[in-house]
Amino acid sequence: MIDLGISKMALIGAVALIVIGPEKLPRVARTVGTLLGKAQRYVNDVKAEVNRSMELDELRKMKDSVETAARDVESSIHGAASDIDRQFNDAAAAFDSAAPSPMLDVPPDSPEYKRPRKNWRLKQGAVPSWYKARNGVRTRALSGAARVARYRPKKLN
Description:
Blueprint: H1 6-20, H2 25-97, H3 129-135, H4 144-151
């Protein structure tokens, strides 16, 4: 880069004072300072963007390595699962080829589930409260404390 020392800066200032003049020199110096500040901020922004892109590339590489490791683990798990499944099927085939046990046989005439004819989603009618009271059906919810108080055994005196 440009090597600017104190002597070179003094020479540039003297030339600027002679060329520009003492009236306009402060305004020009302010403008030059502003422009240099903007240029420095722009350079810093470019450096930050380059650093971000480098970090993003590193993160992508790390993501790729993690994905390949996950794929390897998944393939090993699938391989182990297929081995276990194959062993289980071999054992089941060997068990099926053995003499059938009468305890394990399911009777062929077991009834199948039949859907009830009544539509349980529709309320057909209310059960009378006297019928509920007679059969001990609860009509009101009890809190925990009320339930404990109601069903607590009575003390014998």
